[in-house]
Design brief:
This protein is mainly beta. It has 2 domains: 8-132 and 167-185, Jelly Rolls (Sandwich); 192-310, Jelly Rolls (Sandwich), CATH 2.60.120.10. The protein is built from 7 helices and 23 strands. The chain has helices at residues 31-35, 142-149, 153-161, 218-221, 318-321, 324-331, 335-343, and strands at residues 11-16, 19-23, 37-44, 48-55, 58-65, 67-73, 80-85, 88-92, 97-102, 108-115, 127-129, 168-170, 189-191, 199-201, 205-210, 224-230, 235-241, 247-261, 267-274, 278-281, 286-302, 309-311, 351-352. Strands 14, 15, 16, 17, 18, 19, 20, 21, 22 and 23 form a 10-stranded antiparallel sheet that branches. It has a 7-stranded antiparallel sheet with strand order 1-2-3-10-5-8-13. Strands 4, 6, 7, 9, 11 and 12 form a 6-stranded antiparallel sheet that branches. Helix 2 (142-149) crosses helix 3 (153-161) and helix 6 (324-331) packs across helix 7. This is Cupin type-1 domain-containing protein. Belongs to the 11S seed storage protein (globulins) family.
Length: 356
């Protein structure tokens, strides 16, 4: 049975006056189930506070909009408090406890993409809250809570009874959360919009790749990632992941066209993509994108920490490596057409500017 690769928008799961949580469902995006991948977005309004929680999945978080504060506690470690802003990527391994806070007027939006191969539900994140109306304290009896934390019963009832929020709350009054420390960002976050470029093609596009060199924690997460910015009318050359990885793409900004070709030379997807869309390219399938006039920007995770891609066009393309006689035999064409084909796209590029 063929799997639908059509891009999808996230659906709202819950909301409060502090913000909302959105997720993609495997029932609507079957490739989530096929690839053991989860995807969700957190949106916090001013003074919105996402309560401390951990997940059954390792993730990469990417700040799509706004700025705020993130608290991160790695297993058996002290809390790290980071200032975060648009373009920041954070690797969140198993067992990490996080909280998120927005004190600015602009909405803070964070994208989460991760591996659900060990999750309770394939293709979905299950979050476990430490506090709140659905937090772990509400499940234990007052006796167990009292003995574990050496509290009297009246104090336990107050502690549990005051937790009326669910997932996201709006902080009121004079609560001052910890201030972020610059040194806590080291090794924990990388701003993809400010990092050195791995690819920079004039009028074409730019790429920043997250891997174990610039963000070591992705090794623990088991995922690589990249931020790709394509200029107006430019093209990303056809290519595929040659290490059996899935490519999960979220459209951050702009719009464009995408085509995916699979086995037997069949085009399995031809679609228009726009901001907010998520789509997944299966293993070894070839994908290419052309930006509309306003450009196209996307953030992707690849299900390996150090992804390897093969591009089929440009001077680094596979065609340049094959000998002329092999190409003539394979295409069943004469030497003239083979030479014309080989002579095109000599630039060392994976992004092609629009034709003159």
């Amino acid at each position: 049975m063929e799997i639908d690769l059509s891009p999808q928008l996230a659906k709202k799961v819950y909301e409060s006056n502090g913000g909302s949580y959105h997720a993609w469902s495997p029932s609507e995006l079957p490739m989530l189930h096929e690839g053991n991948i989860g995807a969700a977005k957190l949106a916090l309004q001013k003074n919105g506070f996402a309560l401390p929680q951990y997940s059954d999945s390792s993730k990469v978080a990417y700040v799509l909009q706004g700025s705020g504060v993130a608290g991160i506690v790695l297993p058996e470690s002290e809390e790290k408090v980071l200032a975060i802003k648009k373009g920041d990527a954070l690797a969140l391994p198993f067992g990490v406890i996080t909280w998120w806070y927005n004190k600015e007027d602009t909405e803070l939006v964070v994208l989460f993409l991760g591996d659900t191969s060990k999750a309770h539900k394939t293709g979905e994140f299950t979050d476990f809250y430490l506090t709140g109306s659905n937090g772990i304290f509400t499940g234990f009896s007052t006796e167990f809570v009292g003995r574990a934390w050496d509290l009297e019963e009246k104090d336990v009832k107050t502690l549990v009874g005051k937790q009326s929020g669910n997932g996201i709350v709006k902080l009121e009054g004079n609560i001052n959360l910890p201030e972020p420390k610059e040194e806590h960002r080291k090794g924990m976050a990388l701003n993809c919009e400010e990092a050195p470029l791995d690819v920079d093609i004039k009028n074409g596009g730019r790429v920043v790749v997250l891997n174990t060199k610039n963000l070591p924690l992705v090794g623990e997460v088991g995922l690589g990632a990249d931020l790709v910015r394509l200029d107006g009318k430019a093209m990303c050359s056809p290519g595929f992941s040659c290490d059996s990885a899935f490519q999960v793409t979220y459209i951050v900004r702009g719009s464009g066209r995408a085509q995916v070709v699979g086995a037997d030379g069949r085009r399995v997807l031809e679609t228009t993509v726009k901001a907010g869309n998520l789509f997944i390219v299966p293993r070894f399938f070839v994908v290419s994108k052309i930006a509309d006039s306003d450009g196209l920007e996307w953030f992707s995770i690849i299900t390996t920490p150090n992804p390897v891609f093969t591009h089929l066009a440009g001077s680094i393309g596979t065609w340049k490596a094959l000998s002329p006689t092999v190409l003539r035999a394979a295409f069943n064409v004469d030497a003239g057409l083979e030479q014309l084909f080989r002579s095109k796209r000599n630039a060392d590029a994976i992004f092609f500017p629009p034709p003159n």
